[in-house]
Structures are given as C-alpha cells and as structure tokens.
C-alpha cells in the first residue's frame, strides 16, 4: 500500500469547487482493488465510498474508479496530495468527478500540446502548466506499452488560464524540443474545417517503374517551388508506382493537378490529385459506393423481383424461361453459395414496371417442382428491416397490468433506503451530507470489505386495495419485523 504524508493545501486546492466531494481516479493498474483504493484515500479524510469500475461481463478493471468523501475539504486535500502517486507501481491520475459530461465534451478551456519529448509524463506536464491556473485534467497520450505518443491535453477551470498558457508556451522549448500549444479542436470539427480546395501536397499514381524522382521534379517543378518529392518503394527498393509532391503554396499545387492529371509519361497515364489521409479516402469511397448503390436501386424500383422457395434444380436459364412470358427480362440470377449449391432464392429484372407487376401477380404462389413460389418486389436491406420492425411492433401484444401489487423490499433498521446499493466504507444514510457531482460509485456498509457476503433481503407482502388491515408478524433470517398493513398502500412506496 502506498504511504503518503499529508501536506498543506497548495494554491490549486484553494480554488476548488466548494461543493464537490467526488473524485475520478484514472490510469489505475488492472490489479488495483476497491480495498487498496479505500486504504490509500482514507489517509486524507473519511471516505464515504469507493469503486473500481469493471467490465460487466469479464469483471476486468476498466482502469478507472471513483472515490467519494464526506466533505469537499478532504476531497481537495486528496487531489492535491495523491495526484500522480504510484499505486501498484503505476502513477494514478486524479480529477474532480462531474456527472454533467457537457463540460468535458465542450472543450472549454481545453488545450492541446504536441511535439512533446518522450520523457515528459503526466506529472511533468501538470507541473509545467499549473503555473497559469487551476488544472481540472491533465494527460499525456500513451500507447499500449505506456510510452508517450508525443502529445497531451490540459484542461483549466477558466478560459483565461487556457489562453494565458497558449500565449506563454506556444513555440517554447520543453526538454530542448519546440512544442505547439493551442486550443483543443475535436476531430469532427478539424475535418469539417479543412478547406479541401486549398492543399499543397499532391498525390500521383500509375507511374512506370522506371520513373525517378528527378522526372517528377522536372514535370512538377514548372508550376512552382517544391519542398519535397518522394516515390514510394517496397522492401526491395522497387517502385510502388505512386508518389507525393509537396509545393510551397496551394495555388501552385492546384495548377499542377489541373495540368498534369491524365498526363502520359513512359506510356503510362498519370492520375494526379490532392493527397488524402487513408481515413478520408475510405470515407469518400464508402459514400461513393453507397450513393451508386442507392441510385441503382432507385433506378430499378418496381422492375426487380425477388423470388424464393426455388427448387434446387432451378438454374438461371430455367428461371428466365419461367418468367420470360411476362415481358423482356434484363437480368436473371439464382443465388448460390461458394460451393455452387442453390440458396433457393433469386432475382428477375424486367424492362418495365408493368411487366414486373404482371409477373408478380401470376407467379406468386404458383407450384414449381412441388414448391409454391414466393414472389415480391425486391427491396433494399434497410427498407426490409424497417418494414419487418413495423410489423413486429404491431403484432406485439399489449401487456396486462398485474392484479397483484409487486413485493417491495424492506431493509432492517439502519440499512440503505429503497433503490440504494450497498457500498464499501459508507456510514449510515442519515449521516450522508447532500452533495453535488456525486460520481458513479459502489458503496458498502461500514466494516464490510469488498467481496464479503451479501446482506439478506427482507420482503414484506403488499395488501390489495379493499382488504382489511391486519397485523402481520414476519420472521425472516432470525430478524422479527412487526408492521401494520394498511388499506392505503402508498405509505410503502
């Protein structure tokens, strides 16, 4: 167990929220337990409850938890003293818990730092930026092995502090590396803010293997100053037939794309365009495919028929022969699995909606090789799913209200109230002070350790309205409870 010395509260602690008593504890080792968390934080004040959050299925730690104190002074002192304290060999990261996620997601007073030296960790980043204001959250991004990715985030409690940090530290040297410090911008906002009409990096493909970087420099250099040229090569040094050319300004890059796209060199026709990230290309291709698929479906609306319950002996030619009497068939196919065995379904497309409607009316339910055909207009997967969901929702029976009122749990004196869970380190409910920002936590009855046996449940029967009141003597788990069942059952809600 980590031992700490209680030190006087620093400047950061003085500006904290006077009503928040719940702390978020991140970067926990997967082996840290509720008991370890309680023992560490209870040194700084009376802990009301703790919880290490776990996966519901595997019960594996999610790497974070919550600690709740009885008063905000203890929470502030724990944040000041225990932040970045090693627990099970791994420094923990503490911040105030806020049940309202809008503050975190808004990005208010949140700054982004990149080009950080790999030696700078959470604590070093916190110490550097704490000079400009009270820090709510501070984190260096790390990979799966715990190594820094070279960038991080700091969120202050005020926008003025964030602006001051940006003004003072942007472009400064940290561990002999010039860092960038600026406002944090979400990925969606960054992507939407990019002006795709202005770019300096140009992509060229369909190059011949004999094409060299000097050839590209000669061809593209006519349009403006070039900062870099690269032809991509494989492990053996062989050209992969594509490369990149970066210009000094966007106007030159745009003119090069317009002039050289389709240019022939060494009997190869070049494709020249704006260089894109892989994720951007994939999204563009996905949107293009979905659009073309939608257009194809819209174009064939009312023309394409779906047929199922086909006999295994029905081939494409046989299916076409069965439906050809109703009009001109533009396509016909029986669906088969990879081994060539019929799936019992297929599609037939006609040249006009009238022909498809006539075939549907005549062939639906017709016996073909001892099987009745099912014929319907072909639908997109999304449309079919929506139609089935609508049908199922109409078919679902309306639940009948129960004639007997449900049993309500009753706990022994001093136990938690209705709807409360039993948590570790929790005093009796009457002693809990009202507090804002109460985090997601687990609580246990005083004296109980995590993993202890469950508390017995006590139930009392409910009396239906109209029955006479009576005194009921119930003995459950060696505890005798005497109460009066009234006609008005609302007192038990």
TrEMBL record:
InterPro entries in the record: Nucleotide-bd_a/b_plait_sf, PABP_1234, PABP_RRM1, RBD_domain_sf, RRM2_I_PABPs, RRM_dom, RRM_euk-type
GO MF term list: RNA binding
Alphabetized UniProt keyword annotations: Repeat, RNA-binding
Keyword NAD annotated: no
Residues annotated as signal peptide: none
Domain of life assignment: Eukaryota
CDD domains tied to this protein: RRM1_I_PABPs, RRM2_I_PABPs, RRM3_I_PABPs, RRM4_I_PABPs
Keyword Iron attached: no
Segments forming domain RRM: 21-99, 109-181, 200-277, 303-380
Entries under NCBIfam families matching the protein: PABP-1234
The name this protein goes by in its record: RRM domain-containing protein
Organism: Solanum stoloniferum
